[in-house]
Amino acid sequence: MIIFKKNVILPVFCENLPHMLNNYSKEDKVLLAVDCIIFGFDKEELKILLIKRDFEPEKGKWSLMGGFLKRNETLDDSANRILHHLTGFHNIYMEQLYGFSKVDRDPAERTVSVAYYALINIEEHNQELIEQYSARWFSISEAPKLIFDHDQMVNHAIRRLRYRTSNKPIGFELLPEKFTMRQLQKLYEAILDEELDKRNFINKINGLDILIKLTEKDMSSSRKGSFLYQFDKEKYDKKVEDGFTFKI
Amino acid sequence: MIIFKKNVILPVFCENLPHMLNNYSKEDKVLLAVDCIIFGFDKEELKILLIKRDFEPEKGKWSLMGGFLKRNETLDDSANRILHHLTGFHNIYMEQLYGFSKVDRDPAERTVSVAYYALINIEEHNQELIEQYSARWFSISEAPKLIFDHDQMVNHAIRRLRYRTSNKPIGFELLPEKFTMRQLQKLYEAILDEELDKRNFINKINGLDILIKLTEKDMSSSRKGSFLYQFDKEKYDKKVEDGFTFKI
DNA sequence: TCAAAAGTGTTCACCGTACACCCATGG
DNA sequence: CCATGGGTGTACGGTGAACACTTTTGA
């Protein structure tokens, strides 16, 4: 057993340890950026929304949508603000990903960037705003090379999205409110990048018992038409309270 | 009363380089802290290493070990530096957790903190350094209330540790090089906070085929003695290359 | 000889997966 | 009437979980 000395504060300070200073004034400050990987789904493919950067450095190149943290906002606030600017929406699903901090990641100035990923219903984006930013949806496989370490951020986001969709029902954020089983399956196939068996998929989803089957049909995809479903958030929340864990 | 310097923005860089058309100069800069949740395991319980803060604000309270990011280092560098100061070791297993950014999280000054968690072999820590910092190991359940949002960081770290130990063999970082099956099981029980069946556990571990069973026995725990094992990193790495995924 | 921990296999239930045919409809 | 996508159920194997007794040896 290890014996600890209690309450001993040695007067000898380790000089190069920042926390030992009695105020923060000597510490370096940095610019803190927030960059957003914005995912959408267009019925077949997983896409990301990129902007054409209109300022130096790297002007004219494709980039994630980003901005800098302001003094009076949290990182989440900042990501929300950035997403709002580009899409016009509030309450977008988003999650903090990771902090990227290579010293020379931005050649203009030392900047640390915290990446967020967001999920939006691709049908609802605001076309005007997107044009204002020269933004464009790219399927993941056809996306251009991005500036700085943004490609790395995107890869990180895809990994996280895969993990997250398999234990939280966030996939629905990428779909319209009403969707067919087929669309849901295609979405999961796009995210997981693998084909799924139709019957097993439907059995699994129905087994979760968190969808409402509507009487309406979507007649656009076939002659027979396919039933529309809705995510039942209330039911899901209740089940989670009772110990249910989403798993797909 | 100590007066802290406010966030003074010095737009020197950009003013001296007018050809660089970036608009970074108007942006706020922040102090970027790195705080480390350091886990250890003492054969029975999962523990964290806390320090008694010896400067204002919150002097004398228990806190995570932390520091500030320096201009010329990455977040990982910074975490490594901080861990090295407290433990004397390099090459400690660590992983970035999450960025905490509540505007008033540190009452002294606007600070964003990126939390890291680290795993160390509790038997190898440097007693002198730990005393210098008035540091102490606390079992998770008996840890005191921490300053700022550090409790939240710890909770986050425990969740991540649980997840990570179930898909990467990082548990071994917390054990001595040679360990018994019993110790390994106790470790997993401590991390997952649930009891495991001895036979099932051993079958599962043996099924992974990533341990070397030594001929040595640990005679300290019983009259019969129990065989010692070692993690076979080479074998594990080879298996991973061949598509093996650790899962426990 | 007894106490205390080490070590060892089998059975069963459930879940994930593979797999094929009929239905409804518009053209 | 036919082409197209929609919708449905079962069988099998593998994995995870439950479960109890023997071995060793120092005191």
From TrEMBL, chains A, B:
Residues 29-160 form the Nudix hydrolase domain. Pfam families: NUDIX, WHD_NrtR. PROSITE patterns: NUDIX (PS51462). InterPro entries: NUDIX_hydrolase-like_dom_sf (IPR015797), NUDIX_hydrolase_dom (IPR000086), WH-like_DNA-bd_sf (IPR036388), WH_DNA-bd_sf (IPR036390), WHD_NrtR (IPR054105). CDD domains: NUDIX_NadM_like. PANTHER family: ADP-RIBOSE PYROPHOSPHATASE (PTHR43736), SLR1690 PROTEIN (PTHR43736:SF4). This is ADP-ribose pyrophosphatase. It comes from Galbibacter orientalis DSM 19592.
